[in-house]
């Protein structure tokens, strides 16, 4: 058994069943090892940012890591932006990155680079395997690191001679560590705070937004009147009929500050104190009013769900369990395409247990309101602000949950960064509906330019904000990658295409000009 | 004048006239400053790797830097792979990367990252501007660094509050430093070596492959019988009728070693000692025979052209100036598409003074031989081995030389990494002919897997090597980005489309199934 075989066998034994890959020459022994392991599914990405974004989507839906396989420093570099997002989502990811053979490195050949230095800014754990005999243990350590609390991006660098040398052994994996429970004093503090009858809210992130965490939060809200707010961005939010409605913090600084202005007590559960996304001249980045007391119940990555359960247990029993919104879907709109109409159509037609990946940017206003009374579903957004995550995230979520429909909502500008994901969706036959909002501008930038008082953009600035001249044709782009696509010109046709896509076997793309 | 305005005005004063950009919110004041500067052309890229690869192509053809404008750490990260290639090409590039306002950074908001650490592995010079009053000087320093010897990738990080604060001043630029001349003793050593009548060759890179450097090398070769070899990869090679024919070092280890085996003296001119691209089990990475004496006339980035001129001056005057190949073009092939036929058609039709960007990978065998007797042209290749450079490089070369035709030869696999460059070509109306070799495999990987004795690839490995299922449709992809494209099914139609593309006003794409 060589080093590469020891690594792959160890990963499989640790429960890793999916590899999002874009390998090169220096990774051939890892490819050969993957080839001989029936326990792991290899998904080819034609660009590395697709692979890392897919690993994020996979991890958000399964809670466990996929691995990526990337080619040397430049291949890793291409995957960094979506690793940034994955790191901010606090999901587990294990990257395998090839390196030249150790005896080749001193020659400083064209592809040589300092892979450790490249990995470090976007990885929480980095290691270079030093020998075939240690490669299995290194792989086990990478998995353990990725699953430690909080969940991490772990990058294992594998020199080619470590991969091809004999002497590898499979390592067993340590048990997955659970997050430490919140201190009893903190639980008491929160309970006392809730008793004070001052306007209170929970700012929820991480595991407080789905599963048992969200259920406990809902019961607390019903019992105490505290409001539940989803931090923005968030990794995964369960919502729809039967689930407790959680409003998300607005993106725009002034709106977010206004939204929070009523509260005097804010309890953070796997969420950081709310701060504006960007800084502005003369404006305070902190969003809470000065008179608001902020209590950290659980930091990001800590056991927020457990802390919420502990609070709930300390409350007097309530007959009324928390309830979610009623089954209340918008009526199907007709006529000309509007953003409100698209939101309504999605609200009307969203299938039960679907996964919505939302990077609709400025076109997405109204989507969450319109889907509040839809059947139960999950909502995933961009956690790190590096745009170009929606299509890869949808790919990974669809691999993770093949029985569920994935609705990927992407702006045209952000979609262009990682459009290669469409091809992988077609190859894998995934049930993804990609809706592309073609407004043909970087809408955020136009808005920010105006908001900063920079006046009317001239030709150069408009050149950098506008995506027309020529217009992107997403139906053609999808066709180029084997995904059937359609452009809709009315709300009726949008609804028809959306409905059809939801029962199709493979991916579909719908372009809407907005 | 604010910091952003000081930066842009300083860049323009230093001769920077082009900015390849993909900005975000934190770069809005830089965008506004660009907007008010008529002296700089802004070219929007829909993905940052397009911007950095274009800056490389621009610099290779002009010898001076363009700037890029990138959004925070993730935007820079998306541009790193082609910065790796640019750094290996030793071209000057100035990156402007926005950063959050200094007072915003401690909040660790979603887009926060350690931009200096991200920049460093692929930049030779990194600095963070600390105040608006210093921003102009910082920009001047970045340009000076990029133009220092050897030419460099310089990255200036600009916090948003430095950009928006008043107090900026335009800085004047120091003179561009010329490369130091080679030591007279080294020139003497080389001259003595050439007198010894042992089989000798020059391994040429950098400025020894075009202009005065190549002319001097040609005269030396004619006078001494020494062979001229282009190092591989190289940044820019002038060739065709009237220019001295220089053979490039083969890529494959065994072929390169065989090619060099006859020489007993190898003189390196802006080239490193020849080494295999990748390492292989049990094989020596060094390509020269042990009995070959290696002399470094000029290191990479040093004044190789000057050193060659000094050697030439010390030789006895020769009536016979070196001559290039005769005007000798292949006849146009007919019938079924073959790789040899494509090479012949390109050799037959290549326009005078065209720029060939070659990332044809395994489909490109025979191209250089078939174009040896074509009219004078330049040949650019991937210098760092990070694939996905051809389309961006062609974009940058076409911006640099609007009067010249650019022929971009890309494999389908490598083209997919940065296909967004097609859109920028369409927007800018550039005279680029992109030929896509659709063999629907990662051909290098298939060959390497076999060469390493890893046996017959199974389903998982083939999944990672094969780009079919579904087939990519490059004509549709081009259409999606506003570039007219065609798929050719015979040598006759390929030649017809190629000829037509060479007289078109804007970009054209020709897909050939090979």
Which key phrases capture this entry?
homodimer; 514 residues; alpha/beta; 7-stranded mixed beta sheet; 20 helices; 38% helix; globular
Topology (SSEs and partners):
Two copies of one chain form a homodimer.
Chain A: H1 3-13, E1 18-22, H2 28-35, E2 41-44, H3 48-62, E3 67-70, H4 72-89, E4 93-99, H5 115-119, E5 125-128, H6 132-147, E6 153-159, H7 160-164, H8 184-195, E7 200-204, H9 211-224, E8 227-230, E9 237-239, E10 247-248, H10 253-260, E11 265-269, E12 293-298, H11 304-314, H12 339-349, E13 354-359, H13 367-370, E14 377-381, H14 390-400, E15 406-411, H15 412-415, H16 421-428, E16 432-438, H17 443-451, H18 459-465, H19 474-480, E17 485-488, H20 491-502, E18 508-513
Parallel strand pairs in A: 1-2, 1-3, 3-4, 4-6, 5-6, 7-8, 7-11, 8-10, 11-12, 13-14, 13-15, 15-16, 16-18, 17-18
Antiparallel strand pairs in A: 9-14
Helix pairs in contact in A: 1-2, 1-6, 3-4, 3-14, 8-11, 9-11, 12-20, 14-16
């Amino acid at each position: 058994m060589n080093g590469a075989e020891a690594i792959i066998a160890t990963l499989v034994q640790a429960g890793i069943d999916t590899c999002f890959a874009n390998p090169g020459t220096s990774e051939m022994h890892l490819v050969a090892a993957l080839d001989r392991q029936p326990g792991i599914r290899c998904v080819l990405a034609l660009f590395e940012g697709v692979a890392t974004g897919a690993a994020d989507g996979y991890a958000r839906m399964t809670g466990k890591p996929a691995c990526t396989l990337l080619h040397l420093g430049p291949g890793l570099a291409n995957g960094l932006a979506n690793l940034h997002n994955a790191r901010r989502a606090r999901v587990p990811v294990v990257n395998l990155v090839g390196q030249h053979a150790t005896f080749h490195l001193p020659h400083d050949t064209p592809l040589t680079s300092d892979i450790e230095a490249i990995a470090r800014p976007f990885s929480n754990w980095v290691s270079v395997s030093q020998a075939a005999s240690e490669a299995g243990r290194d792989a086990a350590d990478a998995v353990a690191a990725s699953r430690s609390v909080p969940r991490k991006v772990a990058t294992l660098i594998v020199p080619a001679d470590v991969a091809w040398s004999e002497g590898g052994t499979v390592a067993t994996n340590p048990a997955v560590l659970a997050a430490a429970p919140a201190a009893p004093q903190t639980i008491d503090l929160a309970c006392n705070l809730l008793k004070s009858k001052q306007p209170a809210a929970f700012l929820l992130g991480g595991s407080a937004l789905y599963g048992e965490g969200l259920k406990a939060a809902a019961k607390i809200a019903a019992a105490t009147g505290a409001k539940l707010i989803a931090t923005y961005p968030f990794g995964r939010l369960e919502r729809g009929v039967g689930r407790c409605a959680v409003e998300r913090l607005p993106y725009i600084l002034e709106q977010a500050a206004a939204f929070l202005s009523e509260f005097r007590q804010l309890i953070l559960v796997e969420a950081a104190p709310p701060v504006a996304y960007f800084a502005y001249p003369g404006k305070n980045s902190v969003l809470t009013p000065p008179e608001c007391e902020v209590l950290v119940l659980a930091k990001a990555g800590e056991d927020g769900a457990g802390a919420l359960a502990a609070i709930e247990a300390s409350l007097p029993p309530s007959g009324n369990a928390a309830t979610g919104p009623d089954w209340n879907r918008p009526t199907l709109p007709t006529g000309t395409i509007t953003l409100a109409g698209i939101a309504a159509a999605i609200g009307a037609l969203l299938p039960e247990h679907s996964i919505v990946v939302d990077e609709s940017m400025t076109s997405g206003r109204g989507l969450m309101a319109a889907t509040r009374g839809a059947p139960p579903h999950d909502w995933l957004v961009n956690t790190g602000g590096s745009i170009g995550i929606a299509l890869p995230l949808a790919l990974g979520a669809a691999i993770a949950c093949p029985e569920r429909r994935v609705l990927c909502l992407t702006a045209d500008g952000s979609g262009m960064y990682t459009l290669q994901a469409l091809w992988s969706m077609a190859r894998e036959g995934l049930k993804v509906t990609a809706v592309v909002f073609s407004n043909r501008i970087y809408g955020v930038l136009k808005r920010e330019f105006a908001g900063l008082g920079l006046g009317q953009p001239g030709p150069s600035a408009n050149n950098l904000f506008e995506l027309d001249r020529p217009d992107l044709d997403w139906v053609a782009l999808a066709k180029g990658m084997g995904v059937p696509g359609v452009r809709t010109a009315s709300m009726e046709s949008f609804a028809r295409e959306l409905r059809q896509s939801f029962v199709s076997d493979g991916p579909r793309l719908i372009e809407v000009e907005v």
